[in-house]
Every structure is written in C-alpha cells, then in structure tokens.
Amino acid sequence: MLNDKPEVFGRNNRRADSAELFNINAKYFLFSYSTTSKLHIYDGLIPLISTFCDIISINKIDHKKHAMANMSWTNEWLNTTENFEYLVLAKK
Length: 92
Prior knowledge:
Helix content: 10-25%
Strand content: 25-35%
Distance between the termini: 32 Å
Shape: globular
C-alpha cells in the first residue's frame, strides 16, 4: 500500500516489519558485510544489530574486489579503494 505510514524503528527509521529476521528461532547470528556498501558498519550496522543482539565479535577480512570491478562499462563498482568483509557474530 502506498504511503501506509508504517511503524518504524532504529536510527534509520526502518519499517518495523523489516525486522522479521530477528523472529528466527536461533541463538546466534553471523552477519557478512562488505565495505562497498553505503551503510557504514560502526555508524549504521553495528548499532542496528545491537538493538536486537549482543555483539560477540567483529572480524575484518581483506577481500578481493567484486568481479564487476574489472569491467569497464560500469564504474559503480570502482567507488572504493579498499574492500573489506566484516563478519559480525551476535547472540540473541
């Protein structure tokens, strides 16, 4: 429904119904996150996860660039000089 004015949560005012991931019957979650995303890990993702889970560890791994980075017809993949993958382990 257009303009349904849903209930929102968190710093970024995400729709409350977008948090259904946390209704999963699991004790631990492992999030994989790339620095090529527009959301900053420490200003956006970690605070969001922390509202639902306790962060156990964050591991930063040097990661190869996406395969599209070598293709000249798209420069969207070339927006960063570094490419790291973060693995965030959290306990519900």
